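Open question from group meeting: does this chain pack into something compact, or does most of it stay loose? Before anyone orders reagents, we agreed to write out a predicted structure and look at it together. Recording both the input and the output here so the notebook holds the full record.
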Amino acid sequence: MKQYVVARPLYSEDAFTDEHEKIHRLTKNGVCVNCSCDLKRAKNAALSLLPFIGWMRIYQLKEWLLSDIVSGVSTGLVAVLQGLAYSLLASLPPWYGLFTAFFPVIIYFFLGTSRHISVGAFPVLSLMVGAVVTRLVPDEGPPVNITGFEGLTSDEQRVMVAASVTFLMGIMQLAMGLLQVGFIVMYLSDTLVSGFTTAAAIHILVSQLKFVLGLVVPGLSGPLSIIYTLEKIFVQIEKTNVCDLVTSILIMVVVFIVKEINDRYKAKLPVPIPIEVIMTVIACGVSYAFNFRVIYKVDVVGRIPVGYESPMAPNMQIFGQTAVEAFPMAIVGFAVAFSVAKVYSVKHDYIIDGNQELIAFGASNIIGAAFKSFAASTALSRSAVQESTGGKTQIAGLLSALIVMVVTLAIGFLLEPLPKSVLGAVVIVNLKGMLMQIREVPYLWRRDRPDCVVWVVTCLASILLGLDLGLAVGLGIELLTVVFRTKFSLDLYDGQGTGKQYAPFTIKPMCNSYSHFHVCNCQLGFNLTLICFQVGFNPLRVLRKRNKALRTIRKLLKKGELQMTSKGLLLTSSGPIEESEDESNMEELDQPTDFKDLPVQVNWNSELPANIQVPRVDVHSLILDFSAVSFLDISALKGLKAALKELIRVEVEVYIVACDEYILEKLHSCKFFDDEVKSSMFFLTLHDAMLHILEKHPVNSENTKVCEKV
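Structure tokens returned:
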């Protein structure tokens, strides 16, 4: 067994400071940096506030426009249907959902940073708006005494409540964006969000039963409202409208089967089959032909006014009545939209800004509320349609808004015979993804019981107490589990740490000691974004560039334009070579680089043939110091493993040091290790890992890389 001995002077803090000069570095959060202003910073500030300028400047008209048109039309048709359906969740007349599918989309086009999400009604937010609406303007009994309700019908009062709470929600989102607190979404763990959205799906399911069964059930809100709603449904179950029930079951079965076909054969289908739109058109035609409303007493959408209504100022008194509900709505709306946007930004390799997203959604909801739309975020299924049908930018979103405008101004009357039971059935089918999250509970119980407790308590509290109180309870439980796990970890701590063999890397003589590797002290937990910032590259982006380069090289070899010589690969043609932009299978770009069918292994840091450009990676090793990490939940484990794989696949060796024994045991129990991520990357101390790296990569005369600290 190899051994090492450390010999150095004994330092006090004062003695070390006297002997070594300290460098005060300006970080990106420094006051001097943020308060300075020049032409470049002013230009960047303008581009950050209007992100559409950035992607419009690189818009590829011939390649992208047709895809955006197809995507926009497809998404617009779905947005019309979902707008009508989700307005029922908000306890509003159906046509107000069309306003939500139009105004926020236009504003987000200019201010949003995501190119793929579809802005509009989101079922969870719609349900939260509906809870506020039914509390202030109940179906049975007089409304709350609010100035401004005088002379208004019940529907007009409800629209005022929905618009006012949406306006307040937008103000909160805009304020958070301007104050740069987009990081707040980090405190909503995946486990908490999963439990919350599952409970919301159950609330939505129960709320749609009255439309599926054709019953008259008043909307209820508050603690145990779901129990009282179920009681009122079962009391009058014998009054079920058979026509509504049969229509709903037929719609749900057909839509479910076709959606499964879309998922199974998505690689072979050019675009997903828009089954909801097809079934809606058929249902409208059948309902009109057989006069469902008169003969079978089916409740239909009814009259849809032509055009848009005049703007409306929010009611200040409603602000005071709904502030408690508006804040969780602002958080949930942003958290869901940001998580969906992040998935697509990683898949399509561009950057989104959380603070700018808050500004975009805040402005969208404020302006939308002025024109009587209700809370907007993004629906997962609608965003999937926009992305899977080939949407490249928010041009697709803009075109979807135009489709909604055509329906609102010209052909809305065609939807008047549509049974509300059809809308309810479509809503229920689209809950499958959220309801199936309940399968996470057994996995969490086996792998991480504190996370399982957070999931179960959040879900049950949200079901029984309502979504707003349930979210507060979930946050409280999550904070308690953090305290519990931190205390438990400290009790287990055996005193083994990194020691202080290495001073912070702000000390000048220590900066240039070693080259081509970094030491990252994960004081605030594992954060891939900060690590990418420090090492100077994004591993996933580099990996995709390398795999695209390999596609190009294989294509050139197949055409005979690239040949193997004694000096390596040599280009034989003189024409321009374009890098492969084929994105038909993005998943392949995220896999490890494969050289098995190439005559030579590519050296990525050398000059590549055919002027192929790939970012250089000068870092060969990365040390993650986990001495300050007391625990990792399931979400952190998944993120850590994904990040480690990305770094390993771009040939960066990763070492983790001073990891708590409790965390190591959890990694083994959760089957964290595989063929790529191995337990051999863990070292007892920082010095052990440093010596291992120096043995594999001896220090030479070059000093090209400065070590940093996160």
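Observations to bring back to the group:
Confidence is low (pLDDT under 50) at residues 26-31, 491-501, 503-513, 701-710.
The two ends are 32 Å apart (CA to CA).
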